Amino acid sequence: MDAWWGLVLGIGAFLVWWSFWPQPERRERSRQGWTARTQDQLVKAGAPAVTPAALVLTSVGVGVVTWIVAAGLTGSAVLGLCFAVIAARGPSALVSMRARARTAATRDLWPELVDSLASGIRAGLSLPEAVGQLAERGPRALQEPFARFAEDYRASGRFHDCLDALKERLADPVADRIVETLRITRDVGGSDVGRVLRTLAEFLRDDARLRGELEARQSWTVNGARLAAAAPWLVLALLATQSSTMEAYDSAAGVAVLALGGVSTVVAYRLMMRVGRLPQESRVLR
Fold first, then answer.
1. pLDDT tens-digit series, residues 3-35
2. For residue 22, what is the DSSP state?
3. Would you tell me how many other CB atoms lie within 10 Å of the CB of residue 154?
4. Per the count of CB atoms within 10 A, which of 101, 132, 156, 194 is most buried?
5. Hey, CA dihedral for 196, 170, 36, 160, is it positive or negative?
């Protein structure tokens, strides 16, 4: 009993001592987390109304349905689980492919958009008017977000809030740089915004040309990685039609082989993609 009271007294003394030290402020959760990155991918893929949670639920649903169907066709729950894991990756892989394709398609449009913006400012338009007129004079693939910006600004008149909404709709590092340039110009003023935008347009053209050349040279590495990752599992799908194969993989040794093969495939695929694909610019100004 004395030991118990001594422990309680010690804990109380420690808490009193701890209260005298200032607690570090909790850092806000990084906006570059999985949820933010996935939402950006969905916006780039043309599905801004879909949430990351909905994407996860869709992947789980596809995996469950695939497991039921594959297990019923092959008669092996283990093989069905393998194909279910592969199928569950399908929705997110489709989103990533669409996002990369749309990003590559709009990469050559940003310099044209910046030129149109600089022309509007040089013509004497105010910053909100210059941004809003991109809904008509900007590249067709990028007109819709700027049309919504013009509607928001006419409704609220809040330039900074409308710029924030525009950044979320575009979900692109280049758009972030353009928006922040306009925001600083609006806050502190300056007559060099036209020259800054023209310099940015030249930089974007050089970057798009260089990325296009490098991606063309490294495309074989990316395609080879995909083929190498898919080939063993395609062979497994063909072997799954034989009863002897199902019996072999239903054993403990078979499960170990499938698990080792799955881990090896993921590691090798990620490594090849890291080597063969150019790094994507992150949204540091989001």
1. 556 666 667 666 666 666 555 444 444 445 778
2. P
3. 11
4. 132
5. positive
Q: Cα(9)–Cα(276) distance, rounded to whole angstroms? A: 61
Q: List Cα–Cα distances, 172 to 24, 103, 175, 182, in angstroms.
A: 33, 8, 5, 16
- pTM, 2 dp: 0.71
Q: Whole-angstrom Cα distance, residue 118 to residue 199?
A: 10
Condensed to tens digits (0 to 9), the pLDDT of residues 222-278 reads 787 788 888 888 888 888 777 777 777 777 888 888 888 888 888 888 887 777 676
Residue type, 50: V
Is there a contact between 177 and 285 (Cβ–Cβ < 8 Å)? yes
- In our burial notation (b when 16+ CB lie closer than 10 A, e otherwise), range 1-16 reads eeeeeeeeeeeeeeee
Tokens of 206: 């050089």
- Contacts of range 250-257, beta carbons closer than 8 Å, 24 or more positions apart: 250/76, 250/77, 250/78, 254/78, 255/78
